[in-house]
Write a structure and sequence with these properties.
Layout: H1 11-25, H2 30-62, H3 67-93
């Protein structure tokens, strides 16, 4: 059976990971690493937003109707909800 629950990291695991990072890189390098990771994440976010904007502009210029995708997404969500209700009632009967 597939487990679809989200993964959570406990406090102990976070402390252990930080401890390993301090051992590997040293305490003096951690701020530089965090700064570099922050810049990288910001750059990735900006690039993603640029790509999304470019796609949206292209779609608008081509006159493509995007309402279809939202309608399909709504229908898919309705089916998911019905399946979850059905699965819940089956579990309660078992």
């Amino acid at each position: 059976m597939i487990n679809l629950q989200p993964l959570f990291i406990s406090t102990t695991e976070i402390v252990f990971i930080l401890f390993i990072i301090v051992i590997i890189f040293g305490a003096d390098k951690i701020p530089d690493i965090a700064k570099g990771m922050g810049k990288g994440m910001r750059t990735l976010k900006n690039a993603t937003n640029d790509i999304k904007g470019e796609i949206k502009r292209s779609v608008d210029n081509q006159g493509i109707d995007t309402n279809l995708t939202s309608e399909v997404s709504e229908e898919i969500n309705k089916v998911k909800d019905k399946m979850a209700d059905l699965a819940g009632s089956i579990r309660r009967e078992l």
